[in-house]
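Case study B.
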Amino acid sequence: MAKEKVKVKGKKRRWGRDDTELTLLALPTTIWYFLFCFVPMFGVIIAFKNYKISGGFLNSVFSSAWCGLDNFKFLFSSNDIWMIIRNTLLYNIVFIILNIVVPVAAAIAIGYIHNKRAAKVYQTAMFMPYFLSWVVVSALVWAFLSFDKGLINGIIAGMGGERQQWYMKPEMWPPFLVFMNLWKGVGYGMVVYLATITGIDKTYYEAACIDGATIWQQIRYITLPLMKTVIIMMFIMAVGRIFYSDFGLFYQVPRDSNSLYDVVYTLDVYVYKQLRTSTTGMAAAAALVQSVAGCITILTANAIVRKIDRESAMI
Amino acid sequence: MVSTKKKRKNQPDGFERFNQISTPMNVILNIIFILAALVCVVPVLLVVAISFSAESSITEYGYRFIPKIVSFEGYSYLASQSTMILRALGISLFVTIVGTVIGVLLTTLMGYVLSRTTYKLNNFLTMVVFIPMVFNGGLVSTYAVNTQLLGLKNTVWALILPLCVSSFNVVICRTFFKTTVPESLIESAKMDGASQLKIFFKIVLPISLPVLATIGLFLCFAYWNDWYQSMLYIDDSKLYSLQALLNGILTNIQMLARNAAAMGGSAAEIIANMPQEAARMAIVVIIVLPIACAYPYFQKYFISGLTVGAVKG
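Model:
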């Protein structure tokens, strides 16, 4: 009833000077949204066309012939796409699990370190990779894995072993990419979870302590249950982005090595490579599949969040 | 934790001292965290070491933590290529500064308008901001629009405009304005006849410095670290930012030499004399140094941004 009242009130109120001024204030950003978000959304019809560039964008879109679902047929008739979707999903599943378990454990553990200043130093150090770009990370990894000068091969050779071509060994890359993802993300995760932990009322722990609870019991029955909402939110947000991957991780870190094709290609890398080799149709089809699948997962995830905790829902 | 008594500052007291983990456990945790911290920091130190190594010692002994022969030839080589490096640095700085200013302005404006609940178009604009969070046109049509419709290919604006607004930041701003700017303040300004423009710039922004800092820092780091936009839209090496330059050099070591060759001399000769490895890693150091120096001090703004973003208002 209250809602209805507000609605009626809103309808009654005329368009005022305030509204005009606010519209003017919002105008630049709205134009930005229109150009950089909504026009590309309209542009997805490229996926249903035999896209040929002729003059400007609009002209190209309208003059290109419709080809129905041909692009999608081509896309799904190749074996690659299934492998790529599999890669994207499997990597993301592993990332989601590890990116919750490790930062949560680290955030809880770092709070128990006696020397608080040392804890702050550790946390700051672990936050650093988050601020490095993947290009820089790629250079760092190169310093370790390069064939002739890399540190790892140097150590192996120093111990009398044989130098390895790390960038041509598909079997080592999935665990390595998982490690790199964790390396870059753990500091960020810790910050988010630490904020939750420091927000927990200390008296809970005092009470538990008086009742004789051990530290493990306190973690199990106080800390973790109180972190549950945040953990679930982070989990569902990550699940919502399960069709997206970190392009830099999968493209820059393996340095686009051809022998790693099977293990490092994800949807984002595939779309980029297709775009670069100018098979626009396939690329557009793959990009649309990703956008639509991503949209569905995000909305589903959001609906679940709404069920659990209305306040935390994105929409 | 404020105490007037003389106390060992970093030691827990009272209840915390009673409810703390045992000393052996503390030692184990410290060791684990020291290792983790080292894993995060050591790669950067290795790159710094390489950048200070003599080329001859790298060729002979490979990359090492302690250079056999310390030398500044990597840096002096970059200094000799100063036009290229300075141009890239200039592009990076320009993109970072201009992008951050534009981005903060556009983001806070939208955030402020969305925080005005009585505004007629509030619901419409909220949809404008939220839809892109859920659905996007994908890389191909974005690329087509940016290059063919907006003509951004090979312009510096391709590095700036596509990144300057993100719905996540707008929501952070909206939440902040809604929760911390008192409604009565805006109402009273309105009574005094101030326009919304004036209210925004003279009242709302000055009391919202924390959120400006957070958004500004997010954008600063995003622009400084961006290489993807360059990879997509920039072919002209005159418009390479530091990240793009590094990216180019990592994929093609001859890029540095080619640039030198363009200024005279044969490419083969230049490659032979060039401290490739050290120079390459010296660029990494130039990129990382400002970040590594800045982020420990700005951490708290990131933390407030990350945690505010998790709460919708």
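Chain B has a mean pLDDT of 85. The remaining cases will be described in the next quarterly update.
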